[in-house]
Design goal:
Layout: E1 4-9, H1 15-21, E2 24-27, E3 47-52, H2 55-65, E4 85-89, H3 98-113, E5 117-121, H4 126-147, H5 149-154, H6 161-170, H7 175-198, E6 201-205, H8 221-225, H9 229-234, E7 238-245, E8 251-257, H10 263-275
Parallel strand pairs: 4-5, 4-6
Antiparallel strand pairs: 1-3, 2-3, 2-7, 6-8, 7-8
Helix pairs in contact: 4-6, 4-7
Length: 285
């Protein structure tokens, strides 16, 4: 329908749809793209982010929206990746569909052949993923409920039943729980910055499962975003790149994560994944 598009990624709303649809979804470093004119959902987690058929096209969009930082993100797409070190947290594969895991492993093998060093890492742990998903939900929904407070009281009929129920419940979150989530956030951020100082990027499945049927989507909601929410929570850049298909033809996404403002490095790695030829987009007029 278009060569590129914009959306917002508060928890996973760019990367998961991109992975399930076979396109690129790039969540930049928090604050890199201004949120001027965007209706706020969660002021500490909202990221304006591009989606496109290729990493190069996503980089073109990023050049247009990233503000006046005086650099070309598209220029990073041609950079060599030989010698880079990627950490692979095995916990991020736990519960993954077999076809998803196989496609991601093929992509990592391809990067290894390009001279990238692939190493196993112990973090984030399973407990980290569980707690940051829960805490990210608390923070984002509590902030959303704060912003919608007046409308919830006067325009309840304008909300879908599900959205109203979520915001209404979030409005009852005690300040002590919100602050506990913020403390966990800072502790996790410090540890992940330490890890991302030791490796150039992390790699994992964007989503543990293939696109579910519509009638089954609700039970997969938390599974779909499990590997994505932690990186929105701490504001580091992350990209989902198509890396293959299941035997039934459903797309699989590889998520790459880097440290703050290392957006260009992710664009270089994402372009390298695209060069492997593991995924061919299906375009129709």
């Amino acid at each position: 329908m278009a060569p590129g598009a914009l959306g917002t990624d508060t928890r996973a709303s760019i990367r998961v749809p991109a992975a399930l649809s076979g396109v690129v979804g790039f969540k930049p470093t928090f604050g890199l793209v201004p949120t001027d004119g965007v209706v706020t959902l969660s002021w500490s987690m909202d990221h304006v982010a591009p989606m496109a058929a290729t990493v190069e096209d996503a980089a073109l969009l990023l050049d247009a929206i990233a503000g006046s930082r005086g650099q070309s993100y598209r220029a990073h797409c041609g950079e060599r990746v030989e010698g880079l070190r990627i950490g692979v947290p095995r916990t991020a594969f736990e519960g993954a569909d077999g076809d998803v895991a196989a496609a991601v492993e093929r992509a990592l093998d391809g990067l290894r052949a390009e001279g990238v060093s692939i190493v196993a890492v112990d973090e984030p742990s399973a407990a980290d993923l569980e707690m940051t998903n829960a805490a990210g939900m608390v923070v984002s929904r509590a902030e959303a409920a704060t912003l919608h407070r007046a409308w919830l009281a006067t325009r309840a009929d304008r909300y879908t039943a599900e959205t109203f129920a979520q915001l209404d419940e979030a409005s009852r979150v005690p300040a002590t729980i919100y602050l506990a989530a913020q403390r966990l956030r800072e502790a996790f951020r410090r540890r992940m910055l330490g890890l991302l100082a030791e490796v150039d990027a992390l790699a994992m499945p964007t989503s543990l499962v293939l696109a579910p049927r519509v009638e089954e989507a609700e039970r997969f909601l938390l599974v779909l975003s499990r590997n994505c929410i932690p990186w929105s929570f701490i504001g580091v850049p992350a990209v989902s790149v198509p890396c293959g298909r299941s035997p039934a033809g459903l797309p699989v996404g590889l998520q790459l994560v880097a440290g703050p403002l290392a957006d260009g490095r992710l664009l270089a790695l994402g372009t390298a994944v695209g060069r492997l030829g593991l995924y061919k987009a299906e375009l129709s007029a």
